[in-house]
């Protein structure tokens, strides 16, 4: 039977975190005129083209790496429990990389920025990756 | 210089927001997708908060003729749904369910949970590299 996991439910933290992500996307569009999509930023970084677009992408990625430490500094340690072993991590990583590049976006680019633009492509993409995520967890068996 | 400072700040805020929201915890991502058993709906609130703020901000910003540090906006113009969008997003969803990680959190936990993160990240970058090649293949247009 489906039921809600009230013990781990963190609506306020998740909402505030989402607001931070939104402000981050706003700064990216206002300063740089671009959508804040991480798969696109990483994909462009490893294609080693467009040299004048290289610097801001590297700086953004370095910022992402610093973010969790700011959180630890301000509050406390946080939980990050892996659900996959090495083999599964490799398979998952390949699928995420292939999928987000072929599908032109990920959770940030489609799920936040694209839906906020009311892009029909992003709405469809987000619906599909959430449904396939749910089906995958259903078949591999999440926490009962 | 100010541009890079602001983009760096944007990145830090993004990484901070991901941490605060719970997105850096693959077990929480899996619990979010686990709707038929023990469902933790928290991460839906990340989307709600993110989308509302971004929607409001984007509408204001796009009234400008250009961004502050660039001559024009670079917004995707394609409108049609194609097989790449659908197939790619499906593959991404499967990978997201298997590992509990998407690209942003995968970057953010590199500095925190290095070994599993670098394994996932290396595979993801290989996937991104070949996915971009595949996307450009002209043969795809025939299907």
Task: Give the helix/strand layout.
The complex is a heterodimer of chains A (144) and B (143).
Chain A: E1 3-4, H1 11-32, H2 38-47, H3 54-74, H4 86-102, H5 107-116, H6 120-140
Chain B: H1 2-21, H2 26-33, E1 38-39, H3 42-61, H4 83-99, H5 103-108, H6 114-135
Task: Give a quick summary of the entry.
Chain A is mainly α and 144 residues long. Chain A is 70% helix and 1% strand. Chain B has one domain (2-142).
Structure description:
The complex is a heterodimer of chains A (144) and B (143). Chain A has 144 residues and is mostly helical. Chain A contains six helices and one strand; from the N terminus they run βαααααα. In chain A, helix 2 (38-47) packs across helix 3 and helix 5 (107-116) packs across helix 6 (120-140). Chain B has 143 residues and is mostly helical. Chain B has six helices and one strand, in the order ααβαααα. The longest helix of chain B is centred in the last third of the chain and has 22 residues, at 114-135. Chain B is globular. Chain B starts with a helix and ends in an 8-residue tail after the last helix. At the A-B interface, strand 1, helix 1, helix 2, helix 3 and helix 4 of A face helix 1, helix 2, strand 1, helix 3 and helix 4 of B.
| Total count of strands of chain B | 1
Determine Rg of chain A (CA atoms, Å). Answer: 17 Å
Outline the low-pLDDT stretches of chain A. Answer: none
Strand fraction band of chain B?
A: under 5%
How would you describe the oligomerization state of the chains in this entry?
heterodimer
Q: What's the tally of helices of chain A?
A: 6
Largest interface: A-B, 112 and 114 residues
Total helical segments of chain B? 6
- What is the averaged pLDDT score of chain B? 93
Could you tell me the number of beta strands of chain A? Answer: 1
Terminus-to-terminus distance of chain B: 46 Å
Computed CA radius of gyration of chain B, to the nearest angstrom = 18 Å
Q: What is the approximate shape of chain B? A: globular
Which parts of chain B are unreliable, with pLDDT below 50 for 5 consecutive residues or more?
none
Instruction: Write the H/E string of chain A, N to C.
Output: EHHHHHH
Give the CA-based shape of chain A. globular
